[in-house]
Amino acid sequence: MASTSCPKCNARVEFEVGTKFTKCSYCSSQIFIDRSGAGFFYIIPFSVQEKDAVGLFRRWAAGPTKAKDLDKRAQLSGIKRQYFPVYQFKRDVDGKEEIRIEPAGSTTLPGLHSLKVPAGDLKIFESGYGTEGVELVKPDIEMSSYLNEMPGRPKEQALVYFPIWKVDYILDQKRYEVVVDASSGEVFAGTYPGRGSAAYVAVAGVGYVAFLAETLVTAINPVLAIILMGITLAGVFGASLFVAWRM
Q1: Between helices 222-246 and 198-218, what is the axis angle to 10°?
Q2: Three-state secondary structure call for residue 224
Q3: Residue 118 reports pLDDT greater than 90
Q4: Which of 8, 30, 11 shows the shortest CA–CA distance to 21?
Q5: Of the four, 68, 139, 224, 239, which is 20 to 30 A from 108 by CA?
Q6: What is the pLDDT of residues 194-208, one digit of tens each?
C-alpha cells in the first residue's frame, strides 16, 4: 500500500500502487493519483448540446476561408460526446498566479492543446456525479512529464475532464473532423477544405498587366489612358465579385 494527502482536507489516504483514482474516506473527494503526487479531480458539465454543436459547426463552415458552400455541402458522418482529460497546473510566478493547461491523453484531434478551462464551471468529480453515458477518455500521459517545464512554484494540480463534441464530416469523398468546445462553443479544426486562391491571383495578374499597359499609353494619350483605367478598374472589381460568388 502507498499513501498520500488528500488535496482537499489533507487527510492521509492509502491506495494500491498503480491506482490512478481513489476516494478520500474523510471528505469523500475523488482524488487523481500521479507519480508526482495527489491532485484534485474535476469535471466540466456540457453547456453546448448536440443541436447547438451542429449549428456552431455550420457557422464555422460558412467562414470566408472555407470551401464554397461548405456549410451546405458538408455531410455529417458522425457526432460524438466525449470527456477529454487535461491537466491544470496553478503556479505562483513572481507573486502572480498562472494557469497552464496540458493534455492528459494522447490525441490527434485538433485544438485539444488550446483548451481554456473556465474556473466557474469546474465541478469536483465525486463518485455520484453522472456522466450520462458520455465516453471518458482515459489519461495516458503522466502529469510528471510536464512538471519540469512549469514555471514558478506549484499551488495546485488537477486532472480535469473537459467536454467536447467530435464532429466528422465528408466533402467530395474526403473525411474531415472538427472539435467543438462544449463549454465555450469554440470550434477547432486541423485540415479542412479551403477556398482556392488561383482565380483571385489570375484576376490580380490580368489587372496588373492592364494597368501597366495603360501607364505606357498615358505618355501618348492621357485622356484615353484614364478611360481605359476606369474600364479596367470596373472589370477587376466585377471579376472579383464573380469569383467570390461562384468560387
Answers
A1: 170
A2: helix
A3: no
A4: 30
A5: 68
A6: 765 555 566 567 767
pLDDT digits (tens, 9 = 90+) for 160-171: 999 999 999 999
Residue 112 cell numbers, joined:
485539444
List the one residue out of 191, 193, 192, 204 whose CA is nearest residue 243.
204
CA angle 146, 151, 153 (to 5 degrees): 100
User: What letter represents residue 7's amino acid?
Assistant: P
Whole-structure pTM value: 0.68
Query: Could you tell me if 203 and 243 are in contact, meaning their C-beta atoms sit under 8 angstroms apart?
Result: yes
Task: Answer whether 64's CB lies under 8 Å from 194's CB.
Answer: no
Residues 6+ apart with CB under 8 A from 104: 85, 86, 87, 139, 140, 141, 143, 159
Tens digit of each residue's pLDDT (9 = 90 or more) over 122-140: 887 765 677 878 998 988 9
Distance CA 41, CA 46 (A): 17
Mean pLDDT for the chain overall: 82
Calculate mean pLDDT across residues 75-100: 92
